[in-house]
């Protein structure tokens, strides 16, 4: 992952983060009911900086990925307990995939969750997002239960206990 830096979002990143989110989700456009409406929401990823720690992956001055860590006590979906950390919207520019950008972004959120003292880290994802799901399960996230479909796409909630964060970070580093 040479030349990639993970840093905190700045307001000047807004357009780039939103564009990367749309590019990352574009492959799923045919899977979601009412993609135009759903895509509009995806294209506002930078708005999540208001409720969490939006982190960006940057290479040579260009934003190539992003993720959000929602710490304990911050606003979140009712599907997650209030004292958990939550990972939202891991996105990587399709042209930058396979270089460890997603792994670095997930590691940064897990480090924040550990510092926040969260008893667990949660996320929701779908089987259509097979690469992300393999990453999450490979570092120790376990599927807890199905969630109602989102725009026709199945989702489930996944959880990593705080005691497993160090092992997950070690797996991400290899």
From TrEMBL:
Keywords: Transferase. Coiled coil: none annotated. Pfam families: Acetyltransf_1. Gene3D superfamilies: 3.40.630.30. It comes from the Bacteria. Residues 4-160 form the N-acetyltransferase domain. InterPro entries: Acyl_CoA_acyltransferase, GNAT_dom, NAT_camello-type. The keyword Transferase applies. This is GNAT family N-acetyltransferase.
